[in-house]
Amino acid sequence: MPRFAANLSLLFTEVPFLDRFAAAAACGFKGCEIQFPYLADANDVGDKAAMAGLKVAMFNAPPGDWAKGERGLAAVPGRQDEFRESLDLAIHYADFLDCDQIHIMAGVVPEEQWEEAFDVYLENLAYACDELAGEKLKVCIEPINPGDMPGYFLTRPDDALTVLDQLERKNLFILYDLYHAQITQGGITDFLEGNLDRIAHIQVAGVPGRNEPDALSELNYPYIYNLLDASGYKGWVGCEYKPRGKTETGLKWAREWLEK
Ligand SMILES: O=C(O)[C@H](O)C(=O)CO
Ligand SMILES: [Mg+2]
């Protein structure tokens, strides 16, 4: 049975952030993920997760100035110092949240800088992998579709494989978000079967609306969950979607899987 993690930045937004841990646990979740935990104190976040009995499976390193359109710094030329500093904050939260994997976002880069950005990306990720290896943390990179995030540097799962091949770091993995992957590349089953040892975390949402991963999605999720079970996938499956209405009402799709 896949282990589902509630994305507490998108689910249970009916209640304040720190109350979402208990709300997710009450619905049967054993794990959670958070896009950006930084507005809350790391100690408080860790306490709430522990009190609810939820494992924090994943969160993102600081993305730069989100309000100004920044979506990570790893591939952004000229921001290397800031990128390195941001890792300290991520490590601090990982410690308090008892989380062992961090998603590092590539960032938005103008097309004319893509060549330079690739070198910057490799250099920054190599640095991050080496720093985080000392803390026993995994680094994840996630291809994100450019419709949702225009100009985002890493969009295709095959490009993420190229980065892994180039860097050869033992703690560098793919965060395979099936919603983005279906939009940019497709071939979900083949990619999963061919690269399972390189995927540390999976996220799901309906395609194309990014709502509940249910029968209204073009992806056949029950098929995928059975495939993950059969293949021995041990990671978490993050529920990173925008509920159509109330979170709990929309969890009809999950009842069978959360109760198994
Ligand atoms: O948007 C996504 O799919 C990522 O997982 C994320 O957390 C950054 O927004
Ligand atoms: Mg995602």
UniProtKB/TrEMBL annotation:
Q: For this chain's UniProt record, which GO biological process terms are given?
A: glyoxylate metabolic process
PANTHER family associated with the record = HYDROXYPYRUVATE ISOMERASE-RELATED (PTHR43489:SF6), ISOMERASE (PTHR43489)
Q: Which Pfam families has this protein been placed in?
A: AP_endonuc_2
Under the GO molecular function aspect, what terms does this record hold? hydroxypyruvate isomerase activity
By what name is this protein known?
Hydroxypyruvate isomerase
Keywords, alphabetical: Isomerase, Pyruvate
Domain named Xylose isomerase-like TIM barrel: residues: 21-258
The source's superkingdom equals: Bacteria
* UniProt keyword Isomerase present: yes
